[in-house]
């Protein structure tokens, strides 16, 4: 029996919201009353909880705008609670990594192969915890490699702005090994995590990173979206989101301030004449930044399609190396996690990164009057070696103006 | 019930007097006789039917065993003629007494076929001599060369009738000049000029035998490479080695016809746009073998065949007719004796209600030339073609102490391992001892082992097997006795 998880009414005049954070994943067992997701609306952030216990299947991704009453997930309440859940990311190239049929476990299966012994010692893994796919249930070298890469064992790595890991605001990964009396647990970082850590530090040490801020009024974009949404979906087969606007705005900014579309290589300053914009996408394994190529030549629909496709493929682990290469500038959206303002870190060797944040209804002064507008803080972190202050500020102003006056974008004003 | 005496049973109508078995196996090659022994071990009342006077099928009589006997003898002959001197062994005259060599081969065959008969007796498997045909469901008619047919019955009938050489229309076997492997094993004298059509295991092995014994051998192959299915790099090295031994190769050459004139043969072939003619005293047509399902009554019983005339079976070796099974060369899959043996065992184990299983991923293949070429699992070229992410480790025998001490350092070991999990996906060995060395790798692969597992296993020194260890280490660039690139 499937129970639908619908967005409940959350307040007068609120017709929609954004699924900002999923607290449980598809395939996870949820208990009655457990928080499933955080819904962000114009006025308030609210938790949606599970009515009944069962196996969760999410239907919309994080960051998606949803209507009140929309079904965002289903719970199979006939599914029983698993004894001990262990998620594992099977490497795609391994032919038989998938669960083997229940062949009887050999009494010799505890005798470890030389490679497994070495890895268990070096990587501080308890082989008893590793699911064995070898003959007779033996743990193979591949099983240990899988175990180290699995998301249950690595906390998500975020490489952009926020120091807050609000996404996983739960307690730090509770190792089954933690006896409860221990005051800390030590775990060796996975190779992926170590690599990301090294990249972050390298970025900090190489570039002179500063951040400049501005804010933009989202009402024009929101109105335009509301007006055009139905026809857009009918014509193009997918929803008009915010990213296409921001990508276009960024391209305008880069055209106005070319110095930001650059990179420094040793003693050379290289100016790019093309616009490959990376769009950061959060996945369970960490942040990936697939690149939208030649963004200046794409339509709104093309951009939305690319972004949606990246998001889907990132979730399914199908992003290819080519997708991640070649970007000249990056856009990162901390807003989906609830961030109000932050300082993104550069994506080397790029010279600039735009941080988008949460849209918040705020009182602002317009023409000497106090009005409430949906405002977003924008942050531009830039490499001061390549870009000077004036250029950085000018770029951000251009982006703000483009967002606040989207029709000008279309008319190339 | 009346008497039921072997050889004296009345015709089919008198079903009550038929000997009844749990399983009847038709064919006593490696597939059949091994299945019979296993069936008996499992307590099944077993009968085996063989049309020839001797048991053992193609493998023992006209295949694996006699060819390996001649390869061994001819290998020693070449050593005596060409290699002994460098060891300081002075042999004034090295001569060939082919009759003795052939007689020894025959004796080996006789010993083994006699051995199979003894094994049948020892396991209480009843042996019937004659052509076995499935006459009706659960019934087999055995037709001896002379005498009345015998009817026997069983709940389960296992067809293990093997294969025969493919006979091509443009060059039909005549048993004298245009021959198959069978006659090639008994030439009375080394043919002056010997043409071999087909550069697979049989052509390469038998071409080698007669080349060593003094024939002028030419091997013609339709494809651009020899030993199809084996690692390409190793196959090319083998071709070079055989060329150095005096064998001439013509690849990408298609023989359209062979004519026999005055007891000698002329083969007409095309190579691209060129037409070539080859003259030979004997022509071996070794372009492959085909499953032999004729004569066993498959068509009459409605047993389905595939488009290559092989019997179709499911994963439990059952045909589409209840109670009839098939294994070995007569069904699809690599035509190897050990594959037939594994299938025979699995089939009877399943019949006995046990768990029988054949792991087709780790069946080794060998070409018994010198050097031998052995392969198991995926080759490097296959993996690359399929875009699989793999790592390769290689080690040459010229860097192995034992090989140098033996004055026999030709060849190499190559591993193909999964790039992410390091699991060994395949291996190839080119070496005088390849057929023995490959066994260790097959065992490790059976357990899903990684190249590191093998690399970290102790191998005695000084042995050729250290080359296997080093090649495994080379996958992760840890080889000790050679630079890692």
Characterize this entry briefly:
The complex is a heterodimer of chains A (413) and B (485). Chain A is built from nine helices and 19 strands.
Task: List key phrases describing it.
heterodimer, A: 413 residues, alpha+beta, OB fold (Dihydrolipoamide Acetyltransferase, E2P), Chloramphenicol Acetyltransferase, 2 domains, four-stranded antiparallel sheet, 26% helix, B: 485 residues, alpha/beta, FAD/NAD(P)-binding domain, Enolase-like, domain 1, 3 domains, seven-stranded mixed sheet, five-stranded parallel sheet, 14 helices, 22 strands, 31% helix, globular, disordered N terminus
Description:
The complex is a heterodimer of chains A (413) and B (485). Chain A is α+β, with helices and mostly antiparallel strands and 413 residues long. Chain A folds into two domains: 84 residues, OB fold (Dihydrolipoamide Acetyltransferase, E2P); 216 residues, Chloramphenicol Acetyltransferase. Helices cover 26% and strands 24% of the residues of chain A. In chain A, strand 18 and strand 19 form a beta hairpin. In chain A, helix 5 crosses helix 6 and helix 5 packs across helix 8. Chain A starts with a strand and ends with a helix. The relative contact order of chain A is 0.12. With 485 residues, chain B is α/β, with parallel strands linked by helices. In chain B, strands 1, 2, 3, 4, 5, 6 and 17 form a seven-stranded mixed sheet that branches. In chain B, strand 4 and strand 5 form a beta hairpin. The N terminus of chain B is likely disordered. The chains are: A alpha+beta (413), B alpha/beta (485). At the A-B interface, helix 1 and helix 2 of A face loops of B.
